Design the sequence.
């Protein structure tokens, strides 16, 4: 058991927060490619406006990923414990899930940035 008492309960430890960043990235990824296909099949030439219409939602996706990552960081930084968070306590489980959420948020943010930058650089329907 940990020395510090916190209000972490087993029922409040959900995996939904952990799944949010990759889901946000996946929705943005699929939406970007669907938009590009519809734009180019509709006779559009791509260019600047296609890149902007893909990169602008990337900013929204990054903001959502940052919010989820911040919530994960707060869960990771519950007082009273040090890494590696491998104890069989509610606090250690919450810290571990928080750290995993932060890492997935960082990975999802990098992937979202790559999609947005690629859309701005290669915005054509070549």
Sequence:
């Amino acid at each position: 058991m940990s020395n510090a008492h916190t209000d972490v309960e087993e029922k409040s430890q959900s995996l939904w927060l952990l799944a949010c960043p990759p889901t946000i990235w996946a929705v943005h990824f699929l939406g970007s490619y669907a938009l590009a296909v519809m734009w180019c099949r509709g006779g559009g030439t791509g260019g600047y406006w296609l890149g902007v219409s893909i990169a602008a939602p990337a900013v929204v996706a990054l903001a959502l990923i940052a919010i989820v990552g911040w919530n994960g960081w707060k869960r990771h930084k519950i007082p009273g414990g040090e890494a590696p968070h491998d104890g069989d306590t509610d606090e250690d489980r919450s810290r571990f899930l928080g750290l995993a959420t932060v890492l997935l948020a960082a990975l999802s943010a990098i992937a979202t940035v790559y999609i947005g930058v690629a859309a701005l650089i290669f915005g054509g329907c070549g």
Q: What stands out?
A: Confidence is low (pLDDT under 50) at residues 1-6. Residues 14-121 form one domain. The radius of gyration is 19 Å. The chain is about 70% helix and 0% strand.
